[in-house]
Design goal:
Two copies of one chain form a homodimer. Chain A is an alpha/beta fold. Chain A contains twelve helices and 14 strands. At the A-B interface, α1, α2, α4 and α5 of A face α1, α2, α4 and α5 of B. The structure holds a DNA duplex.
Chain lengths: 312, 312
DNA sequence: CGAATTGATACTTTCTAGGCATCGAACAAG
DNA sequence: CTTGTTCGATGCCTAGAAAGTATCAATTCG
């Protein structure tokens, strides 16, 4: 059921009426508006017809607002004010000075690259608000094509079609184990030394590729760990390790602020590698200046801590 | 310094764009708006030019909002919604179903006619809000021509030019005196019996005519009272009488709810008369339907308690 | 590779805002 | 009371803009 254009008046009518209401004088109002007085009279009369209520009492010697006119003025003043600021607002949005970017990240990102990026970005683009949500890799890979997030910091398994990514970090995982664990006294470990110790890991669905790569690394070392618990976010795994539920993987960068009851030990020989990238929909940075600004800051920080070459 | 019309766009542009943003489809949006598709494309393009920012990304197969477009939608949705309700709102204001009336009154009015009027008016016109302020007669006579109040309940001394009035009440004043006063045992009093007893009265500036008429009445009775205190609002005079500061005038109607420590006694012979009228600017009831509705209710109540004829 | 769909463009028609001239009413000055 | 001035409204004409029709270019899908 097509419905016709719903307004029988437009902004011109409202602006003209506002000026008449301010001056209560058609001739002077017309002068201010740079139109002839008859045009103004007609527009106001049209507005009254469109609204179905008289707005002014004209006695050819005095113009006064009716109650309806008073009510109209009160309602359109804020509307006109907000509309008059629109072009400036939208231009600043379009130029990236103002806006918002929805960003997802994993625990590793927040433990490493993200804090300095955020600090720098807020300093350079104070008008842009970031919406930050911790989210597993798999969820980010779903949310990115949907446009639910503008960019994500995650750990890809294979190239994702339609996404552009930039590697920010590559690190070999080490092991986090309780301080009173038999192996805790060692400087470093080998995977096979862990035997079939109980493991705390993230849910496989959150990053199946990396999950399977971890199991494959164990398998190549000839051992099969018992997965005791699957927990997320990653920070909670530390709590489980501390309470003796098992051991877990972690990157060196992420292990800075471990509680005293647990220790981090690097792995010698084969070890699963974590790769942190920032990813966004290909081409979306062209349409979203705020995102582009954010990615530029990310790129600047990626350049600083460029990681050495290595296998995927 | 004449300034040109400030908007390079109008409501049509905004409504058209809103529909495209909702459907993300020019053809269907055009159908909904009951216009041809080229017209819609042009209007949206014009809006983008007027705002100086691209609002949509068109890939001939997919239409998406840019950040600026998203920001625009968020800002204009409430504006369009409020504007679309304007005709209905203004018609109800113009018809008197919705509105406000500023009313001033004196203590006598609130003690007598006003409560039933207010009850009745709110029942019949629930959409009209009354702004009620107690105010002396003189202040009301200043505020009425200014339009600061729409109508007032006061005690006129002489006809006021430009005002229409309707008499609501005529009453001979009596005397309020402490219960332990020597004259309190009498059924009624004469003015001259009060001699030069201390009096509590309202400030002369609040109603010079009535004030002088009171003094003249004393003078005709051959006595001259001492004005000990001038106090306002009237209700406070009762407190002063109670504490023995003097005696005061009051209308019988107003004396209903006196505290037990004071008594009311009518006056025999000469006594100042209080006349309560409702007044409004001549002709203003024609322009203000809410006021007209209020005055109709007042008139209905005035008819009920029509006072008998008597001297002004 | 052809058919269909989408949004943009060219051209014409229709509508409307604006300007000019003028009118009737109301107030002011004499 | 008369005359002149000022105010907003009205009639007529022109110019500009919006809408409709027809068509194009690009993309998608079978």
């Amino acid at each position: 059921m097509p419905r016709k254009y719903q307004f029988a008046f437009d902004l011109r009518h409202l602006v003209y009426f506002r000026e008449v209401a301010r001056q209560l004088h058609f001739r002077r109002a017309a002068e201010t508006l740079a139109v002839a007085q008859p045009a103004l009279s007609r527009q106001v009369a049209q507005l009254e017809a469109a609204l179905g209520a008289p707005l002014l009492t004209r006695t050819s010697r005095r113009v006064e607002l009716t109650p309806a006119g008073q009510a109209l003025i009160e309602r359109i003043e804020p509307v006109l004010d907000s509309l008059s600021g629109l072009p400036a607002v939208l231009r600043s949005v379009a130029s990236g000075q103002v806006g918002q970017v929805r960003v997802a990240f994993t625990g590793l990102a927040m433990a490493t690259v993200l804090p300095p990026i955020l600090r720098d970005f807020h300093r350079r683009h104070p008008g842009v608000r970031l919406q930050l949500n911790e989210s597993p890799t798999a969820a980010q890979l779903e949310a990115l094509p949907e446009g639910e997030i503008a960019c994500g910091f995650f750990h890809p398994d294979k190239p994702a079609p339609g996404l552009k990514t930039r590697v920010l970090l590559r690190e070999r995982n080490g092991i986090v184990l309780p301080a009173d664990h038999p192996l805790a006294s060692r400087e470093s470990l080998r995977l096979r030394e862990l035997g079939n110790a109980p493991f705390v890991l993230f849910p496989r669905s959150h990053n199946p590729g990396f999950y399977d790569r971890i199991l494959a690394a164990f398998s190549r070392s000839g051992v099969a760990p018992r997965i005791e618990e699957e927990v997320w976010p990653r920070a909670n795994a530390i709590g489980l390790v501390r309470s003796g539920m098992g051991v877990t993987f972690m990157c060196p960068s992420e292990s800075r602020q471990l509680p005293p009851e647990v220790v981090f030990r690097p792995l010698r020989g084969p070890a699963p590698e974590s790769r942190l990238v920032v990813g966004w929909r290909a081409g979306s940075e062209a349409a979203d200046p705020a995102l582009r600004a954010f990615l530029e800051v990310v790129a600047a920080h990626a350049g600083v801590r460029a990681a050495g070459p290595g296998p995927g």
